[in-house]
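Researcher: I'm preparing a figure for a lab meeting and need a structural model of a single chain. I don't have an experimental structure, so a prediction will have to do for now. The sequence is pasted below. Please return the structure as tokens so I can convert it later.
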Amino acid sequence: MVVADAAAFLRGGLAERWEDEVGYVPAWVWTNRLAHGTEAELRAESEGTRPVGGASGERWRRARAFLADEVLESAARYGSLAALQRDVLVPLELELSGSAKASGYSLAEWVASVESALREASQHRASGRG
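Model: Understood. Here is the structure written out token by token.
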């Protein structure tokens, strides 16, 4: 289980794994695909072409699809997806995973936290600080 979770984490598929195996996905886990997915995976996510899992996470998947599009747009402004993931999304994922409050975020709170991180990254990059 630990090895499979680690592999899913690094591939950006932890939410689907936990949804299938555990039946519960903390809010921070939905950040995993954004922080580790490839451009093709994020594009498929934003276009709705990824296979969907169980019904319980459908709203979260739709929100993640919206955010995947936001990540791709931000990455174009930031310089690259890899840099945005390294500098912004992986640290956000770690921050959220270590926060008891963030684990219980509502869908709106999670979306707002990701959008805020993307907005801040864009502002830092535009000011030459990123």
